[in-house]
Amino acid sequence: MAEKPPLPDEVPDAEHPAHVRTKPLLRHTRTQRIQPLRILVAWMGAFAGIAALVLLVALFPSMQLLVIGSFGASAVLLFAAPRAPFSQPRNLIGGHLISALVGVACYRYLPDVLFLQEASAVATAIALMMATGTIHPPGGATALIAVIGPEAVHGMGWAYAFPVLVGALVLMLVAIVSNNLYERGSYPDRWD
Fold first, then answer.
1. What is the pLDDT of residues 18-38, one digit of tens each?
2. What's the rounded Cα separation, in Å, for the pair 174 and 180?
3. For the chain, which residues make up each domain, given as ranges?
4. For a surface tag, which of 1, 73, 102, 124 has the fewest beta carbons within 10 Å of its beta carbon?
């Protein structure tokens, strides 16, 4: 009798052949219940972080600061998962900064073919974040915004990296205060 191949959602166990024992690729476990206070702290941190960015933009219009969509995704990581590797300062700052520069380069120097610029910006940002150990998933959006953003973003050129850096630093500072008020030493988990 021929060996039965594993089902698509199963992979062979490392110690046994596929026909003897398999492990599911995805375990169907319930999500650990999050304490209501932790949810409130995450909400307050995210609110304070985004509010701080909006206020900075309003108070200092000459600095050409921006609130970009990828900061919302960064807020999810920083306030809901502050111990995650992608939430750490090196990843937050490096990922956004690299991605901003890549996005500007793709917009400025690639042929004026939108799909080529968009795809190249995101893919190159991912590759460089991986190569530098600064993976921050919202960075992909930061690179894409440099390409598909409004004329205000395009007009900034390389200076787009400045508001991205300022925004990431503001979110990081709020995350340090907010997360450590709830649980001392909880953020950052590491600086390197």
1. 554 444 444 544 667 888 999
2. 10
3. 1-30, 36-182
4. 1
